[in-house]
Amino acid sequence: MATWLVHLRIANHFINNIPWLDGAEFIKGSVAPDCGYGEKDSDGEFTPPPKITHWTPTGRKTDCRYKEFYREYLSGKPKNSAYSFYLGYYIHLLTDIMWSSLIYLPTRLIYREQYAKDPNFLKVIKVDWYDLDHKFLRANPDFKAFKLLENADGVRDYLPYYEKGQLASQIRVITDFYNSNKNKTNLNREYPYLTESAMNNFIECACELIERELVRRGITRSEERMGFSA
Q1: Is 228 inside a domain boundary?
Q2: How high does pLDDT run on average in the chain?
Q3: pLDDT tens across 130-184, in order?
Q4: How many domains does the chain have?
Q5: Confidence (pLDDT) at 40
Q6: Domain range holding 20?
Q7: What region holds the Phospholipase C/D domain (predicted)?
């Protein structure tokens, strides 16, 4: 639900603040839930479907069963490379819940008349979302998290519901999408559906709330306070 780069910006914060993380595996995990085969931003079928990749029986991102994912893949497990991947995945689920609740659903309410007239109105709104991504990357060409994803040399088959090689293939789709838009014009414009400050504020708030969740779970320690760096 959140853009790929929003997930990477949040992941970047934790890479910079948790010294034991395997950054490369963590970054792969942070986008892995969005690695189903399918047409980007479509309402069509994905393989596997979001119900599986996002652990949501209803298909709604507000219903991601992140606690079940934690129990299956993180609780009591050693903090190795696989753990870093699963932690990135876990944080992705938490982020999508927050993005759905704080960005997507309020926007649907504000523009409910436009949605009623045009079922594809979300695509209009997402132009702002992704143009803000492109604007950020243009201003930060050496952005660490994106560079790690670009240089991903392969992905282990961490999860049984993805085909062999699927994660690596779809990660390349993500990096190709952003690289193909490096020369996109008209980024210094008004953003009526999501302002740059609203996106930045969301990311900072999400990092703070996720940090508290990690401390509560004992994944990080309360004395290791993290300065915002996404």
Answers
A1: no
A2: 94
A3: 999 999 999 999 999 999 999 988 889 899 999 999 999 999 999 999 999 999 9
A4: 1
A5: 64
A6: 4-216
A7: 6-99
